[in-house]
Write a structure and sequence with these properties.
By secondary structure, the protein is mainly α. The chain folds into 2 domains: about 50 residues, no CATH class; about 210 residues, MetI-like fold, CATH 1.10.3720.10. The protein contains 14 helices and no strands. Helix 4 crosses helix 14.
Length: about 300
């Protein structure tokens, strides 16, 4: 009876392992299928945009056909580069987006560090006021901001436009960085203080490597916002040489008689999405972690 009692769990354990082994291939297959379908759903629009940008203007607006594959050309890109000076405007957008991303990351990191590590009277109210600005669309503040920037001689300036974008990216950046710093153990700062490190030294040398996901999230969000923003650039820029890429595409997609050149528009859209895709791929592993820390914690 005892031997039989000891022998019973052995077949049961084997059956359990067999069932677990049977579930693993099934779960892996489901994971691969879902991942493949999701990848196709994300990549297909990008591939379709690239394909349409290689068609002549006369075929872009027509119904897709198999014969279109024999008419692929880089004429739209060459026309934009040679006739539209698209690279100059893309450079303006890249400069503004880079300045905005760097300024937002630096200020948001310092502010997030201050809100997370230092407690002062009214700190909760100040942080709540920072978050409240997320609910105010910048379009509602264009007129007073234009008057203020005109007084400061910052209109029709790429630096002024970058400062404008930084202002509206800071609330989200401060929110993410504060919650990222809250996840870092406070003991690290205390140990650095015991070793004689100042608050600035602690932030740069000790805590900075641990908050890279939050910084990457802030940089990516600020860059994408300023790279694709249109209304602010249209309001604050008046010189054609300072136009950013969205403004240049608006001008170049219309011909001399007001007819839309859809071939140029498709090619310009592809050029505009290249930096976004590259930056997202480079920072996506940090972006997911940083965005999660900004939402879950705090």
């Amino acid at each position: 009876m005892t031997a039989a009692g000891r022998a019973l769990p052995i077949p049961a354990a084997r059956a359990g392992r067999q069932q677990a082994g049977g579930r693993r291939p099934a779960g892996l297959a489901v994971y691969l299928i879902v991942g493949t379908v999701a990848s196709i759903l994300f990549v297909l629009p990008l591939a379709w945009a690239v394909f349409r940008s290689l068609l002549p203007d006369a075929l872009v607006t027509s119904a897709p056909a198999r014969a279109d594959l024999s008419h692929l050309t880089f004429g739209n890109y060459s026309g934009l580069i040679s006739g539209g000076d698209i690279l100059h405007y893309a450079g303006n957008s890249l400069l503004v987006a880079a300045m905005t991303a760097v300024a937002t990351a630096v200020v948001a990191t310092m502010a997030g560090y201050g809100f997370a590590r230092f407690r002062f009277r009214g700190s909760g109210i100040v942080f709540a006021m920072v978050l409240a600005t997320l609910m105010v669309p910048f379009q509602a503040l264009l007129t007073p901001l234009f008057l203020e920037m005109h007084t400061l001689h910052l209109t029709n300036s790429l630096i002024g436009l970058a400062l404008f974008y930084t202002t509206f990216n800071l609330p989200f950046g401060v929110f993410v960085m504060r919650n990222t710093f809250l996840q870092v153990p406070w003991e690290l700062s205390e140990q650095a203080a015991v070793d004689g490190a100042s608050a600035t030294r602690t932030l740069i040398s000790v805590l900075r490597p641990l908050v890279v996901p939050g910084i990457a999230t802030t940089v990516l969000y600020a860059f994408l916002f300023s790279w694709t923003e249109f209304v602010g650039a249209l309001t604050f820029l008046t010189s054609n040489d300072l136009f950013t890429l969205p403004l240049a595409l608006l001008n170049m997609e219309y011909g001399s008689v007001g007819q839309v050149n859809f071939g140029y528009l498709e090619a310009g859209a592809v050029i505009a999405m290249i930096p976004c895709v590259i930056l997202y791929i480079a920072l996506q592993r940090y972006y997911i972690r940083g965005l999660t820390s900004g939402v879950v914690k705090g």
